[in-house]
Amino acid sequence: MHIGVCKIKLYLPESQSLKEKRRAIKSLIARLKNRFNLAIAEVEAQDVHQSAVLAAVAVANDVKFVNKILAQSVKFIEENSSVVLVDYETEFFF
User: What is the pTM for the complete model shown?
Assistant: First the structure.
């Protein structure tokens, strides 16, 4: 079993309130879950209206597949126009 964890730091330039931020993050999380079958949640900066930190987790029996899914999810976020990808880091556990 291989587990990949990706910590994703985002900037939401259009968000003017926590309500707007939560709407944007909730939408992004739902699209990532549906498209890539990830476990994903907001893990830091919940009370900052223009920043968010997400943690995405993928589990599979092949490390290459886990890496591919996490890389595709990061690329999907980069192409999303409502958020700006600031940084990300990925860890693997075997």
Answer: 0.86
